[in-house]
Amino acid sequence: MIKFANVSKAYPNGAVALENVNLEIKKGEFVTIVGPSGAGKTTLNKLILDEEEPTEGSVLFENADIATFSRAQMTHLRRRIGTVFQEFRLLPNKTAYENIAFAMEASGKSDEEIVSDVPHVLQLVDLQDRMFHFPSQLSGGEKQRLAIARAIINQPEVLIADEPTGNLDARSTNEVIEILKKINDLGTTVILTTHDPQLIKAVGQRIITMERGRVVADEQKAHGKHNAV
Ligand code: ADP
Fold it and tell me: Which of 43, 69, 90, 192 counts the most CB atoms within 10 A of its CB?
């Protein structure tokens, strides 16, 4: 579904964020990318979202080179990918319900769809009892679950979660990971990044380790296989 072929990325100031990255993410996978701060994880996500372009190599989405996308194709690509970030990015003056309704309105959904879908997605992330709470009235874990609900409301094929547990305690971290697993079980490809090696114990499937812009390991946890790169 997503393929990095010999991808390097240097920023204009000379910082090298990625060096010769090769990897393929298949539809339906749950991929965890782990590495210390500065390893290149966010840059990898930005390249998938066409927010940055590789200096060398190509990033392919369903075999099409993202760099060649027109503006319309880029908009379409971004609709197919939901995003969640460490800092939640919720609207503080809107309730949980309104945060999601607002995102649906922005993508052209009808009032009927909003009324029927918002409670459903809040239930999926176990926030049905927090529907009319404002972000300031929610715990960190609840805020992140709300951000996840908002990210999946348009049924994206891929969910990118960039350090979603970076601000959370252990219990909230587990809640968020469980929700991400559930979304993956429902068919969405999940790409999770973290700087926390401890988190690997909680996540399943595939673990990609990055260091200084390089993929240094690509491990299939479920099958116990380990491929040093
Ligand atoms: P991570 O998400 O793993 O912390 P990043 O992709 O954010 O890593 O950063 C990788 C490297 O690229 C770091 O050295 C960082 O300083 C540099 N970098 C990231 N974004 C920019 C930018 N917009 N301009 C210049 N350098 C950047």
Answer: 192
Tokens of 176: 């968020």
Q: Which percentage of the chain shows pLDDT scores above 70?
A: 97
Cβ proximity of 29 and 183 under 8 Å: no
Q: How many CB atoms lie within 10 A of CB 105?
A: 14
pTM for this prediction: 0.93
- The verdict on the CB of residue 163 being under 6 Å from ligand 1 is no
Query: What's the pLDDT tens digit per position in 202-212?
Result: 887 899 999 99
SS3 129: helix
- Positive or negative, the Cα torsion across 183, 187, 188, 192? positive
User: Rounded distance, CA 93 to CA 135, Å?
Assistant: 8
Q: How many other C-beta atoms are found inside a 10 Å radius of the C-beta of residue 201?
A: 8
CA 48 / ligand 1 centre spacing (Å):
15
Structure letter (DSSP) for residue 205 = S
Any atom of ligand 1 within 6 Å of the Cβ of 35: yes
Sheet strand arrangement including 81-85: 81-85, 158-162, 189-194, 30-34, 206-211, 214-220, 225-228
180 and 159 in contact (C-beta within 8 Å)?
A: yes
Ligand 1 site-directed mutation target among 43, 192, 196, 211, most atoms within 8 Å of CB:
43
pLDDT digits (tens, 9 = 90+) for 27-45: 999 999 999 999 999 999 9
